[in-house]
Amino acid sequence: MLFSELPLDPNILKGIEALGFTTPTPVQQESIPLLIQENRDLIGLAQTGTGKTAAFGLPMIHKIDVNKKIVQGLVIAPTRELCVQISNDFKDYSTFVKGLSIATIYGGASMDKQSREIRSGAQIVVATPGRLMDMMKRKMIKINHVSYVVLDEADEMLNMGFKEDIDGILSHTPDEKSTWLFSATMPRDVEKISKSYMNDPMEITVGNKNVGAKNIHHVYYNVPERDRYKAVKRILDFNPNIYGLIFCRTRRTTQDVADKLLKEGYNAAPLHGDLSQMQRDKAMDKFRDKTLQILVATDVAARGIDVNDISHVINYHLPDEVESYTHRSGRTARAGKKGVSIAIVSNKDQNKVFQIEKKIKIKFDEGKLPSGKEICEQQLVGYVEKIKS
């Protein structure tokens, strides 16, 4: 199937063509015709990197009445970074759609400026739950005429403690709206949201529910607790062309690991909530541009990352929640490519490995850290290939 075969407005198709897209992904093939032709609720279960944004964005843009200068479409996403990414994608899709205005609202930026965007006639609003609730309380935005609501990365929003905000937001929207919920996993809290606010939703699943992506190689290295950092260094040295994410459990560990790597000459930077917005933006921009090779991040800070071609995800510590592992590993192997998800574990973590295997139906290989000789050989091969290219 081609995009040109989908029942989309010609001006949207023109925008898609200008972006170089020709063939929709599986989630787009299933979602777009349904959302355009039927005013129904939808649950879309798909990993990150499967094209979810276009799956809900193209139908929403198609259905908006550009002659009405009121908020008709609302997209709620967990982080500022993801909101900005979604908004930019929507603007790209609608390049040739005249009269469409999109507002992006999130914390850490001028509320007055965001309010002006809405007052100037934005038909689509992309928002984080906290800032949206703040603006609703201050009567800076009305969502009582919304026809379409998207909850993107619903499981992540609930993990971050936004359930109360989501309840508050949805309670102010019309009963007859269409709600489209997209999530990588379907934990109980997401099911509760769907039962409370959705009416007989259609369900689309790309892959299996709560199952990890198939093109990811999962491997763990069992090391003494004190040797976690040494293990990471060996992995990085063995993969000199790595373009990867290292996930840490706390902000302090994230900063410590990044500082050590920088001090030892690795092209790395931290990403966590103690950094200023400017510092986080700078790190993200460098990572997207591939001028930064290794991003050391907390789960919360990394939730807005929408980057293709990540070769490796390294879990400095495994997360407490299995769903978080699915999200972490889903940062690699996007758009049909292959990737590697590595877990550094000590003996006390071994049970977590088994829990993840059982819950998301994957198999970890037990790895052996490369020796100094193997690292030298691998780096030599990489150097020769670099010269050849």
Structure, described:
The chain is α/β, with parallel strands linked by helices and 389 residues long. The protein folds into 2 domains: 203 residues, P-loop containing nucleotide triphosphate hydrolases (Rossmann fold, 3-Layer(aba) Sandwich), CATH 3.40.50.300; 173 residues, Rossmann fold. It has 16 helices and 14 strands. Strands 3-4-2-5-6-1-7 form a 7-stranded parallel beta sheet, sandwiched between helices. It has a 7-stranded parallel beta sheet with strand order 10-11-9-12-13-8-14, sandwiched between helices. Helix 2 runs parallel beside helix 3 and helix 6 packs across helix 8. It is globular and about 65 Å long. The chain starts with 9 loop residues before the first helix and ends with a helix. The mean pLDDT is 91.
CATH superfamily of the largest domain: P-loop containing nucleotide triphosphate hydrolases
Q: Mean pLDDT across all residues, rounded?
A: 91
Strand order of the largest sheet: 3-4-2-5-6-1-7
Which CATH architecture of the largest domain is right? 3-Layer(aba) Sandwich
Roughly what fraction of the amino acids lie in strands? 15-25%
Secondary-structure class: alpha/beta
CATH fold call of the largest domain: Rossmann fold
Offer a concise description of the structure:
With 389 residues, this protein is α/β, with parallel strands linked by helices. It has helices at residues 10-18, 26-37, 52-63, 80-93, 111-119, 129-137, 154-159, 163-170, 188-197, 228-238, 251-263, 277-288, 299-302, 322-329, 350-360, 372-388, and strands spanning 42-45, 73-76, 102-105, 124-127, 148-152, 178-183, 202-205, 216-222, 244-247, 268-271, 294-297, 312-315, 339-345, 365-366.
